[in-house]
């Protein structure tokens, strides 16, 4: 999933981003509301983690823009206030969830994952296709009973290929969902990840490249 973290306390923003990346998420960071407004208009994030008290453009205004925008981004609002009135007001603006500071990081991760599940049709925790079993909770992959160790990016690529309803998956979608804004669109990281993923999955090959279109998983003959 791809997440936008908007927090003007830079150390906190960077710590949140580092932790979410360690959980296998692609994360972009903004330190003020104006920069976040531009990011939210340009990218279809699964979840935006917004501090309510932001310089330039506040969290309330950002939430309104997300709700009125064309994307299905879910909003988790952060605030130092834990009063009921503040929570009610934040949710009434269109925020999907509310978390008071200080918070436990494990709870933040759980809430982000729960919100991300709302942006797409519910997927089972274990995906099976072409003899491959992918455990989205335990983040483990098996083929024919053999455990296959994957990097976070390789796991993310395979999860995109195996998600319910997935047909042809473009390089652009993989860059958007598995990598973050710092990646060069002209890079060959997708091709390299595919090469190593195919090698680790072994024979017979199940990931097919459709020139000019993208990648698809085919059932082994």
UniProtKB/TrEMBL annotation:
GO cellular component: cytosol; protein-DNA complex
OmpR/PhoB-type domain location: 124-219
Keyword Phosphoprotein tagged: yes
One matching Pfam family: Response_reg
Biological process, per Gene Ontology: regulation of DNA-templated transcription
Modification sites for 4-aspartylphosphate: 51
Listed SUPFAM superfamilies: C-terminal effector domain of the bipartite response regulators, CheY-like
Annotated keywords: DNA-binding, Phosphoprotein
PROSITE patterns: OMPR_PHOB, RESPONSE_REGULATORY
Domain of life: Bacteria
SMART domains per the UniProt record, alphabetical: REC, Trans_reg_C
DNA-binding annotation, residue ranges on this chain: 124-219
Positions in coiled-coil regions: none
Domain Response regulatory: 2-116
MF terms (GO), sorted A to Z: phosphorelay response regulator activity; transcription cis-regulatory region binding
PANTHER family for the chain: REGULATOR OF RPOS, TRANSCRIPTIONAL REGULATORY PROTEIN CUTR
Protein name: DNA-binding response OmpR family regulator
Organism of provenance: Glycomyces artemisiae
